[in-house]
Design brief:
By secondary structure, this protein is mainly beta. It is 0% helix and 59% strand. Strands 1, 2, 3, 4, 5, 6, 7, 8, 9 and 10 form a ten-stranded antiparallel beta sheet that branches. The protein is globular.
Length: 145
């Protein structure tokens, strides 16, 4: 999220049946805990859960690129959050997980100009030296599985 943190060698992606599981570790490069987060850019339509509320302060205190995020909404979670992303003929159920309390923002972000896409940003509520973020993507079948 900041110059004092880096993304460590990711644990990587693995497939488990019809699910894709991505794991990334973000670590502080200093000995002091930092605000750690992870951004995920989506090309589909995020189905915003009802607990998200408008938040005009997303860019405040964050790196300059967050100034280009528009119509941000935020919600608080503990250990994981789940939502659906609609790709037209396919809906993916997405689970993002990180131990502890975190905030999750959803916003419109720049894509290949002049287009925009939807993105999410997870940020730990408490500064830390390291965080493991796991994202699971699974097709949401018509039967509701």
């Amino acid at each position: 999220m900041c110059a004092a943190a880096r993304c460590a060698a990711p644990l990587g992606k693995k497939q488990a049946g019809d699910r894709l599981i991505d794991t990334a570790i973000v670590e502080s490069v200093t000995s002091t805990p930092q605000t750690l987060g992870l951004a995920l850019h989506l090309q589909g339509k995020f189905r915003v859960p009802a607990n998200f509320v408008a938040d005009a302060s997303l860019a405040s205190g964050r790196p300059e690129p967050f100034g280009f995020w528009r119509d941000a909404k935020v919600a608080s979670f503990h250990d994981h959050a789940e939502f659906d992303v609609d790709y037209g003929s396919l809906v993916l159920h997405v689970i993002v997980a990180v131990p502890g309390d975190f905030k999750l923002w959803h916003a419109s972000t720049p894509d290949v100009p002049p287009r925009r896409r939807e993105s999410i940003y997870l940020e730990l509520t408490t500064p830390a030296k390291s965080a493991t973020f796991t994202t699971t993507f699974a097709p949401k079948w018509q039967s509701g599985k």
